[in-house]
Amino acid sequence: MTTHEPVPPDDSYLKAVIERTANAVAEAEPPTSPHDGSDTDTRAEVERWIQAHGSDLLTLSHALHADPEEGFDEHRSVQRVVGLLGQHGHEPEVGLAGLPTAFRATSGSSGPHVAVLAEYDALPGIGHGCGHNIICAGGVGGFLASAGVAERLGGRISLVGTPAEEGGGGKETLARQGVFDDVDAVVMVHPFSHDIATHPFLGRRQVEIVFHGVAAHASAQPFMGRNALDAAVATYQGIAALRQHLPSTDRVHGIFTDGGARPNVVPDRAALQFYLRSAEPAPLKDLARRIEAVARGAAEMTGCGVELVWDEQPAYLPIRHNEALAARWASHQRTRGRTALPRGVVPESLTGSTDLGNLSFRMPAIHPMIGLDGDGLSLHTVEFADAAGSASGDRAVEDAALGLAMTTVDYLADAKLREAVHAEFDAAGGPLDVPSFFA
């Protein structure tokens, strides 16, 4: 047997990015808000709740971290949240839109309605390598710390548990079933390597490309076959050639999922799966068109049939951030000793995708990033999972809870802020018919 070890990647580019980012962070100014937000007494009440019950949130975060569950199977995680909500007088509805691990709790009966979102699914093999234990505990804290003032402020605050962000698109499923129809704005937070008020995320589509050929004996009668694997290889190479002509924020990455059964049989079936990502909805749609053209060209070239199966799980749109609401988040993070940076400080090409983007084209939304300690921390790694369960992760839970609660009550208390939030959303194009966009 001959073996050859893989060549370690050159990390000089990543180190240079980290250094440039550190320099930019030192010079950047956080976004500021011209709006007053809630009154002093309301803010003090929120702060007192966090001080009195922060340990409950950390207990929840640690329990989720120690017992990770993958998307659509987060039953124990949900029961832990339900238990904590029950201790504080809330009985959530569990099981929404046909999703057993979705839930909702609401405080207040009428008026403007803000939803605080919680994610709690983990990754296979590395647990909470995306820090969803922090997202969940911070969101629960944001709801509980603000729920007591919702009625007094003339509004409603909901906590919505959204399963399977990691590829399952739980938020889109909930939205299509009307869960967010009466919600005016949504807020959530995500752990990261830096504090950022409005870091962009890419839209994402999935496609399975299946080629159908004609089987034949690969030695005796190869001329009687039509090689589906050749078509798949040509597609992979065609997409590789396409990459040099894409914008820097676009991404296409894929794998072979079927390449035939035996070398002496011309493969009559071969398949690939690709993810497509882009920073804007329209270019994402165009990228899909170009990928489809490559696949159909490969089929024509090899004499094979081709089937393209798009988005078995919901497509993700990029995030349309609401700067007016994000500035309120940034102002509250300053009181916690954090500088929530504006867009562009951390390179926009170093990002992924989230189903929060789908909600952000239906209503105003924020998805700020809250930093954990550790230079160069990368999402979806064991190192990030370790950080999410550390003292740094604990601090992020409490800071996230306070930031979400304060931003939520600001929205309910300040009519001028609400006007600015929705004027910005309308100026960006208003609501998008998400289900039909990629049809």
From TrEMBL:
Entry-linked SUPFAM superfamilies: Bacterial exopeptidase dimerisation domain, Zn-dependent exopeptidases
Pfam families, per database record: M20_dimer (PF07687), Peptidase_M20 (PF01546)
GO CC annotations, alphabetized: cytoplasm
Source species, domain of life: Bacteria
GO BP field: folic acid catabolic process
Keywords: Hydrolase
GO MF term set: dipeptidase activity; para-aminobenzoyl-glutamate hydrolase activity
Peptidase M20 dimerisation domain ranges (all copies): 205-296
Positions of region (Disordered): 20-42
Protein family: Belongs to the peptidase M20A family.
Name listed for the protein in its UniProt record: Peptidase M20 domain-containing protein 2
Organism: Allosaccharopolyspora coralli
